[in-house]
Amino acid sequence: MPTDNQASNSSQAAPAAAPSSASIDAPAPRHRGGAVLPWLLLVLVAAGAAAGGWALNQKIGRVEQAMAKRQQVADSDILQAKLKTEQALDTLRDVQSRLTALDTRVANDSGQQAALQQLYQDLSRNRDAWVLAETEQIVSSANQQLQLTGDVHGALLALEGADARLAGTGTALATVRAALEKDIARLKSVSAQDIPQLAGKLDQAIAQIDSLPLQAEYVAPAGNAGPVQAPAATLSQWRLWWHQLVDQLGASLKQLIQVRRLDQPDEMLVSPSQGAWLRANLKLRLLNARLALLARNQKDLHANLRMAQTALGKYFDVKSERTQAVQALLTQVDSGANAVELPTLAGSLSAIAQVKIKN
């Protein structure tokens, strides 16, 4: 068997020995197949390049779409951010305007506070004078009410309130406080009258005046007790008419005659038509007595009560229970309104005047 070296040597020698025959006898299609292969490769490369280009184009398109969407989202975010920024700016402007208004108000309040502080300082410096003037007004009003209405309790409360206001002052008003304490002690020792109760009794008496009977009160005559007998059937028509006429004339004559009980001669001065004027005059007397009671005018009070008692005993029926009740009310008012000497507050007013002169 020939070796590999020998075979290779023989193969190399064979072409060298007959070069012309190999070149002449080679078939033509081998040259055509070698030429098609490059074209085929070129077509494949072109197709691959086209496919790659198309794929790249699709990818680029998707990337552009994604970028467009992101751009839209970014534009929307930018628009929202712009709106929020404008809102924030509006809010900031509003806050700034409010801060400006607050600064103005604080400035005004500061000015008012400074004015109030100055006023407070002025009042503090003149506090004693201010309290003294207020105390003088309270004491003066209490003195007027005491003399006009006799309200001891109200005057006592007023003086105690004035003394409480003077408690926080210095020693400059000590003399005024001492005078107030003396007047308070004097008012506590006075037995106050119950003026409203006495006035109420006078009101009750006035309300009963219209129901009091007069001594010469007219009493209507009683009618015939028995029934009028019917005329006999035998009487003629003209006799029946005559009896009716006589009865009517008799009734008219009875109306012209009034029977009264007269115990005193001057009672004839009070006629039934004058009874209303008598009652009105008595009411006026009692009203004057009431006004005198409220004004603590003892002289006019007792004078009006005496005249009212005289009129009741002279013109009204003193045996009537209503008349006796009114007389009892007037007696209670007369005895309950005894004169009570009320103290004045001149001591406190004098002490206040002296302190004002010193200041």
TrEMBL record:
<dbReference type="Pfam" id="PF04375">
    <property type="entry name" value="HemX"/>
</dbReference>
<keyword id="KW-0812">Transmembrane</keyword>
<keyword id="KW-0472">Membrane</keyword>
<feature type="transmembrane region" description="Helical">
    <location>
        <begin position="36"/>
        <end position="57"/>
    </location>
</feature>
<feature type="compositionally biased region" description="Low complexity">
    <location>
        <begin position="1"/>
        <end position="27"/>
    </location>
</feature>
<dbReference type="InterPro" id="IPR007470">
    <property type="entry name" value="HemX"/>
</dbReference>
<protein>
    <recommendedName>
        <fullName>Heme biosynthesis operon protein HemX</fullName>
    </recommendedName>
</protein>
<feature type="region of interest" description="Disordered">
    <location>
        <begin position="1"/>
        <end position="28"/>
    </location>
</feature>
<keyword id="KW-1133">Transmembrane helix</keyword>
